[in-house]
Amino acid sequence: MTHPIHILGIESSCDDTSVAIVKTDGNVFETIFEKTASQTDLHAQYGGVIPELAGRAHCESIGPLLAEALQATEHIDAIAVTCMPGLITGLHVGVEAAKSLSYLTGTPLIGVHHIEGHIMSPLLNANITADEIQFPLIALVVSGGHTQLIHVRSFGSYEVIGDTRDDAAGECFDKIGKMMGFAYPGGPKISKAAVDQPQTIDLPRPMIHHDSLDFSFAGLKTAARYYLRDTPDTPIGEFASSVQAAIVDTLVSKTHRAALQMNAKTVFVVGGVSANPTLRTALTQSLEKKGIMLIAPELSHCTDNAAMIACAAARRALKQDYDAWNTLAASPSGTLPS
Ligand code: KG4
Ligand code: ZN
Question: pTM (2 decimals)?
């Protein structure tokens, strides 16, 4: 049995500064410290994330969060930091803090792809262990910046098999939410407004019958804009429910198709939008008929967090496969390990 190690995770790629410590033997992942400074209120007044303000807010939060984390444990075996993709203003803050800490304490450093973090998030504090997961595995990654179907060959080996051709699902929720008068992020507000409301409005489900596994949400956003312009007295709950149904139907249909194509035994749904209860229920119903297991993260680990970044670094930390602190670069783009 592998001796458990402690990994310090740092996430600052968007609008959350998050620091966590995860204890793991590579099979079980337990959060022993986690704290996130959210910038939601700061950006809400602008209707979206302002990179310059995000960078400044990360600078203010990262030091105190790290100081608190370091008091919560006697020993850290590795430092994991999101190094791509994301807002460069935020990535730099996390990566430079991680590099400094690594250099000063002699603790090895591991750069993590943010999407690999989301993919590992269902294993955090889970009642299933990594070696109990059955492959083939498909991950539906649905966040504010990404809508992807990823074939997970094994943890650490990925192939993107479907992607959005324009907006991400979360971005679509947020932009339509803004049209409806909701502050950023609109996703959770639309989800709340839709509870027990009928889907009375027929909105498009772009590319749903298209053979590829790609998504497109720009047409839905435009249709929503015209509908609201032409029907200003639309009941908000019915509109929210109809928008949510259009997004959920599209996500479920493509995921179902991908799972059948790849003979998947397991599907992970991860990222901020995976907190949506209607999406979780619809995916479960669609996949369980085919004997495919759906696994989602705890609600607190759907949106960006540092614990998932620590999880994604575990494999490499246990193999002692480290990045040299001085060669790790924060990059605004990047590809998953393949
Ligand atoms: O993963 P995340 O925290 O950040 C990115 O990496 O983008 O995802 C944030 C996204 C936002 O677009 C937000 O509106 C969406 O997740 N979201 C939701 C819900 N909770 C968060 N969308 C729909 N329903 C929800 N309950
Ligand atoms: Zn994310």
Answer: 0.95
